[in-house]
Amino acid sequence: MPDDSPGSGRPRLAVAVLCFGGLAASLTQTLVIPIQAELPDLLHTSAANAAWVVTVTLLAAAVSMPVAGRLADLFGKQRVLVSTSAILVVGSLVCALSDTLAPLLVGRALQGMAMGFIPVGISLMREITPPHLTATAVAAMSATLGVGGAIGLPLSAWIVDAGSWHDLFWVATGLAAAVTALTWFVVPHVHDAQPGRLDVVGGLGLAVGLVSLLVGISKATTWGWGDARTWAAIVAGIAVLLVWGAYELRQDDPLVDLRTTAQVPVLMTNVAAVAIGFGMMAQAVVVPQLLEMPIATGYGLGQTILEAGLWMAPGGLMMMLFAPVSSRLIRTIGAKVTLMIGGTVLGAGYLVAFFLMDAPWQLLVASCIASAGVGIGYAAMPTLILDAVPMREAASAVGLNALMRSVGTTLAAAVMGTILTGGTMALAPGVEVPTMGAFQLCFVAGAVAAFAGVALAAAIPRRTVDRPAPAQREVRTAA
After folding, report:
1. Residue 81 in contact with residue 120, Cβ under 8 Å?
2. Is residue 259 packed enough to be buried (19+ CB in 10 Å), middle (13-18) or exposed (0-12)?
3. Segment 74-91 mean pLDDT
4. Is the pTM of this model over 0.85?
5. How many CB atoms lie under 10 A from the CB of residue 466?
6. φ, ψ of residue 368 in degrees (nearest 5)
7. How far is residue 144's CA from residue 89's CA, in Å, rounded to a whole number?
8. pLDDT, average across residues 208-228
9. In the predicted model, is pLDDT for residue 78 greater than 70?
10. Cβ atoms of 123 and 72 closer than 8 Å
11. What would the CATH number be for the domain defined by 9-198+255-477?
């Protein structure tokens, strides 16, 4: 019988499987970007309706991460990991078989729900790894949030060039099936289920509030910040979330323990997550557009979608390469200072981009610097959360932190879109494109968000919670 105890070779294999699963889940977020402009024709619908193919995945991911975390705390993390990866299989298969908008939206929503795999996988790391490996494992799993999205763009562009758009989802189906099988057979099932009940009403309230808020933010560029629909959705979302918070505080077994969340170490880490998430997404939105701008603009670099994706891909790999660097920093100087370093490096990447945007290789350098900062910062945040909450709430707390990063990325996409559409020039009759100054303002906004994250991280007090060592936990392979 294989040795499943922490510190053996088995945990390393389990960590590799979890990281692979995180990559597969996050990769689906950018799968449709290369064909986004073609979706109205492919699905026989309007451009406004086709935009929901991207938005629905974002919304489903935001709701699923805290809910998956709570389910993992109640029923066991490995079981939820298998379930979320199976949902990814179903969602990808539905998309692969779709030719119209409605079924594709269903499949994309299911793909978004699978993003719960990442925070649950992160929270499991401390239970299946020896202490010397934990920080590196958490860092590597955290990096998959950015790596999957970064490599998804060139990969999907290449697949579409080589075949049909349906092939994108057949590839995703195969990856998801492999993740499901590997998670079932390789990832150990720790006896970590906690007594309690699932707060269904709280889950519904969180879903309604988040969806309304994020729809308002994500559609602000399309509808306009002055449109009544934008503010109606945002205000309604905030109102529902306030009512939801009051309800959760009265529950003995809430979906999200807001009292724990309100503790300063957790609260400040989550607020910092919004800023760092904003900083990560800003470059992911702006740099590809700048690379693809026509040379006739005077500043555009004239790259194809595939070429732009290839220029961006090293940034995603940089996040993974910096996982061991981040883990060493966490062990030697602490997660708080590591998060501050990550935010500083991220901000520095934007400053480099502000001054160096005349050639693709210059943006590659800036993107790699910013991505290194993201890799360092993303690894530190789950560690700060896990150090500040009881083990019984680990998965739900990490899920909430992932949600806050998602809020930051959604806000970044809306703000960057507003900046780019707010400063335009005429390229040809009827053709408006962003000015060079608009792109530079986006880089400034990204830098400000990153440095704001550093300031917020500085306010996080040091705190740890006593927890059982991994070696004291009973582990068995799931049957």
Report:
1. yes
2. exposed
3. 93
4. no
5. 6
6. -70, -40
7. 19
8. 87
9. yes
10. yes
11. 1.20.1250.20
